[in-house]
Specification:
- This protein is an alpha+beta fold and about 120 residues long.
- It is built from five helices and three strands, in the order H-E-E-E-H-H-H-H.
- A three-stranded antiparallel sheet has the order 1-2-3.
- Strand 2 and strand 3 form a beta hairpin.
């Protein structure tokens, strides 16, 4: 069902765990259906210097969380906001059609984390 790239990312995910000093946290998914993805970002001088995630879900959900956090690390906020689910799927060498929603969750969680960061910055100014 899953290709080698997805299985590798699932078996050895990058950036796993909660980040206590994150200055942006975003969540996507639905607890009632089972997939929940939480993305943490630490931003310094408009650059995402650290990322991590906690995901409750299938192999595709974990693989897309790992890949998305890897893809935005080192990017500016503006660059990270351009991340799309299609880019995540491409980087994973594809996903089964019924698992594309996992990549959408990754995109949404990244956007939510960035929006959370922006709202905190706005409040402190």
């Amino acid at each position: 069902m899953y290709n080698e790239t997805v299985m590798k990312e699932f078996a050895s995910p990058q950036n796993v765990g909660a980040m206590p000093d994150a200055n942006g946290v975003g969540q996507a998914g639905n607890e009632s259906c089972g997939d929940v993805m939480k993305i943490y970002i630490k931003v310094v001088d408009d650059v995402i210097v650290e990322t991590s995630f906690l995901t409750f879900g299938c192999a595709a959900a974990i693989a897309t969380s790992s890949m998305a956090t890897t893809m935005i690390k080192g990017k500016t906020i503006a660059e990270a906001l351009k991340l799309t689910n299609k880019q995540v799927v491409k980087k994973l060498d594809g996903l089964p059609a019924q698992k594309i929603h996992c990549s959408v969750m990754a995109e949404e969680a990244v956007q939510a984390a960035i929006n959370d960061y922006k709202s905190k910055v706005k409040k402190s100014n």
